[in-house]
Design a protein that fits this description.
- The chain has 303 residues and is mostly helical.
- The protein has 2 domains: 165 residues, no CATH class; 138 residues.
- It is 77% helix and 0% strand.
- The protein is built from 12 helices and no strands.
- Helix 1 runs antiparallel to helix 2 and helix 7 runs antiparallel to helix 12.
- The protein starts with 6 loop residues before the first helix and ends with a helix.
Length: 303
């Protein structure tokens, strides 16, 4: 057996997605949820459509890596080994996603320019070259069997999680740490000191906070509906900003663009990124307005 999932297992993974959650009455709930999420990512690789398989596996791994933060006090030195393994798998899947992103964003950009204009023709040529060379997707380069093996090993590591720590306490501690890091990222952004990579890291912390917040008990969620909506919107804005950055990098080195056309496309992309970043800062101001101590007290007060 190579660890590769079957089509039947992929169907089971979709069912696991629907019923996934954290049983707050179970002291072993965090370990069980993490194991379930990693298994769902692995079995999801069996989807008949390779692009869908990659998308599903990446989505499930994001949730698993968020849940892993809850398990940190329970894993000890094993935390870093498991975190590194999941991160390595995510990078392999993410490389395929970045390739697809450039084509998608270029397709959106095409609509901004009139037909037969020099910019439109250059963008059409860019998309045609990618389709001709297979640049639209590198999914066939992925070793799905090896990725499944790595996730099977990760399942074994997650299965070793033992502990009777209150899940709600773990969620609060993980959220507090996530808020601290996210607020630090936000401060760097508004001070103008954040690099492109730091913008991307901020997005990952926002998504982690979103996933962890959804695990809070029902009585705590009642006061966080707007917060969840803002976190989702902020992650979307930062995500689109990152996708445009990927396209900018590709266009910068593509030989099919003259310097004049390249500059015109860049201005269009920069304009869109200014709008996205302004929106992100407005949302960030609301989501990170409290000091860390006040945010921690609010978590406790909400249940």
């Amino acid at each position: 057996m190579d660890g590769s999932p079957t089509a039947g297992q992929a169907t089971g993974a979709r069912e696991a997605d629907r019923r996934a959650g954290l049983n707050l009455a179970d002291p072993h709930a965090v370990g069980r949820l993490l194991l379930r999420q990693i298994a769902a990512a692995r079995t999801g690789l069996a989807d008949a459509n390779p692009e869908t398989a990659v998308f599903q596996a990446r989505r499930r791994l994001k949730k698993a890596r968020s849940t892993l933060r809850l398990a940190r006090p329970l894993l000890g030195t094993g935390y870093r080994r498991l975190a590194d393994r999941l991160a390595a798998v995510s990078r392999r899947l993410g490389a395929v996603r970045d390739v697809d992103v450039a084509a998608r964003e270029a397709g959106r950009l095409v609509a901004a320019f009139a037909v037969d204009t020099p910019v439109r023709l250059a963008l059409d040529g860019f998309l045609h070259r990618r389709q001709r060379t297979g640049g639209g997707s590198h999914v066939d380069d992925l070793d799905f069997a090896d990725i499944a093996r790595q996730l099977r090993i990760a399942e074994g590591q997650a299965a070793g999680i033992v502990g009777t720590t209150d899940p709600v306490w773990l969620i609060r501690m993980a959220l507090r740490d996530c808020y601290r890091r996210g607020r630090h990222d936000y401060r760097r952004v508004i001070d103008g000191r954040a690099s492109e990579e730091e913008f991307h890291e901020w997005r990952k912390r926002v998504k982690t906070r979103f996933h962890l917040s959804k695990l809070l008990p029902p009585e705590a969620k009642s006061g966080s509906v707007k917060e969840l909506a803002r976190l989702k919107a902020l992650a979307a804005a930062l995500g689109e900003d990152h996708d445009i950055a990927v396209l900018e990098q590709e266009i910068a080195v593509d030989p099919g663009f003259s310097e004049e056309i390249r500059a015109m496309v860049a201005r269009q992309l920069h304009g869109r990124r200014r709008v996205l970043r302004r929106h992100a800062l407005e949302l960030g101001a609301r989501l990170y307005r409290r000091k860390l101590s006040a945010y921690g007290e609010r978590l406790v007060a909400r249940g």
